[in-house]
């Protein structure tokens, strides 16, 4: 039984693999964006079992070689468990807003604010419509009387004559 065992955790949007029981002990950090489309595999190379992350058919990266296949599979399973737990944590962390739960308290707060705004608009319009306006006597108009411009054009007129004219 080895003194140290492999472990994996999701920290700050990254998968952190700690592999002290590998032939070459290593700690590796892989972003969750890269890990979403990657596959973790255990391949046999040169008599050792190598934990590998495969991004595409052509691109892969060796993480660590293990002396025994069981140790490599244990490291693979710890990475799998960490990714499974980490995907739930990142959704609640606010990194994935499409899956973030909607709280009733938040809806009630926004609903109350919208209702208060609508009530305020209603009060302002009600007060504005109830204010008295200066009434105009029936039959009066606010326009100046139309006179023939040819008769009055260019003729000097005193202020008293102008004001007394109808």
Mean pLDDT score: 79
Query: In percent, how much strand structure appears in the residues?
Result: 15-25%
Cα-based radius of gyration, to the nearest Å: 41 Å
Span between N and C termini? 118 Å
Order of helices and strands: EEEHEEEHHHH
Unreliable residue runs: none
Could you give the count of β-strands?
A: 6
Separate helix tally: 5
CA-based shape: rod-shaped
Broad structural category: alpha+beta
Helix content: 25-40%
Reported for the largest beta sheet, the result is: 3 strands, antiparallel
* Arrangement of strands in the largest sheet: 1-2-3
Q: What secondary-structure arrangement, pairings included, does this model have?
A:
Blueprint: E1 7-11, E2 14-19, E3 26-31, H1 32-36, E4 39-45, E5 48-54, E6 60-66, H2 69-92, H3 104-130, H4 149-152, H5 159-164
Antiparallel strand pairs: 1-2, 2-3, 4-5, 5-6
Notes on the protein architecture:
There is one protein chain. 40% of the residues lie in helices and 23% in strands. It is α+β, with helices and mostly antiparallel strands. It has a domain of 93 residues. A 3-stranded antiparallel sheet has the order 1-2-3. The model has no long low-confidence stretch (mean pLDDT 79).
